[in-house]
Amino acid sequence: MAQSISRTHRKLKGAPDYDSPDFWDARFATGADVGEWLNSGEALIDAVVSDLESRPVITGRQPRVLHLGPGVSELGLKLRDACLERDWMGNGIVNVDFSGEAVRLGQEFESQKAPSEAMHWYRADLLAWDHVSDLSRYAPFDVILDKSTSDAIATAIDHHFNSKDDTSNLCPVIKDLLSTRDTISLSPVELLGLHLVPLTKKDTTWVVLSYSTFRFDSLPFLAEYWTLRSRTPLKAPSGIVSSNAYTPDTFHWVYVLDRK
C-alpha cells in the first residue's frame, strides 16, 4: 500500500492540524491522545449492530465494516466484541487511519488475536484515491463507521479538479463528474463521501458521530450517491462546572446515511 502521505495545500487560518498525519502521530506516540473524542460512541455501536442484524444474510458470518480514523479509540474493540457475541467473525472489520503510529499500535495489538478475530489496519489518506483504492480488496462494505473523522477532515480546504489535468489517479466517480463539466470543486467531506462510493454497494450504511448540526448539508455531489436517513441529537457529556453555574445542554449528532 502507498505509504507516502503528505498535503501541499495551505491550512485554514486558526484551525488545528487535524488534517496532518504528523499532528496525530505526535499525539498518539506521546500518549497525549488516549481518550475518546466527543463521547464513548456506544450509540454508534448500537446503530451499526442494529443495521447488521437487519440484513438478511451476512456472508460467511463475516460482516464487512470500514472504520474510518479510529486512532487509539476503543470503539473498534467494542465493535469486535459485539460481533463475537453474535457469533460473527471480527476479521471483516477494517480500520483505516492516516497516522502511522495509530496503525502501528493497532497492528501490534491485533497480532495477538486469532485470525478469525483479528481486525485489519491500514494507513491511508482518505482524500487520496490511490490510497483509498487499496481498500477495494475488502469491498463492498456493509457499514461504514465514522466517529468524528468527518469532523477532522472538514478542517481541510476544498479540492479542485480540472478535466484537462491528468485524471489517471482519480476516483472513478470524480472522473464521471469531470466527463460532463470542465471543473469541479469539492469540500473535503464531499470528496470523502465520493471516495467511499466504489467501496460500497446499494444500501450500505454510513454511520457518523459529529459535533456539527450541518455536516452533510449542501453537498450536491455527495447527495447523488448518499441519502440522509436520519440525524439524531445525542446529549454531549458535560464537563466539570460549578454547582451554582447554569450550563445549557449541548448535543452531538448521529447521522445515518444510505448508499443509493
From TrEMBL:
Transmembrane segments: none
Single GO term (MF): methyltransferase activity
Keyword vocabulary terms for this entry: Methyltransferase, Transferase
Superkingdom classification of source: Eukaryota
Classification via InterPro entries: Lys/N-term_MeTrsfase_sf, SAM-dependent_MTases_sf
Keyword Methyltransferase on entry: yes
GO terms under biological process: methylation
Keyword Methyltransferase: yes
PANTHER family, per the entry: METHYLTRANSFERASE DOMAIN-CONTAINING PROTEIN, SAM-DEPENDENT METHYLTRANSFERASE SUPERFAMILY PROTEIN
Family membership noted in the UniProt record: Belongs to the methyltransferase superfamily.
Protein name: Uncharacterized protein
Species lineage: Eukaryota, Fungi, Dikarya, Ascomycota, Pezizomycotina
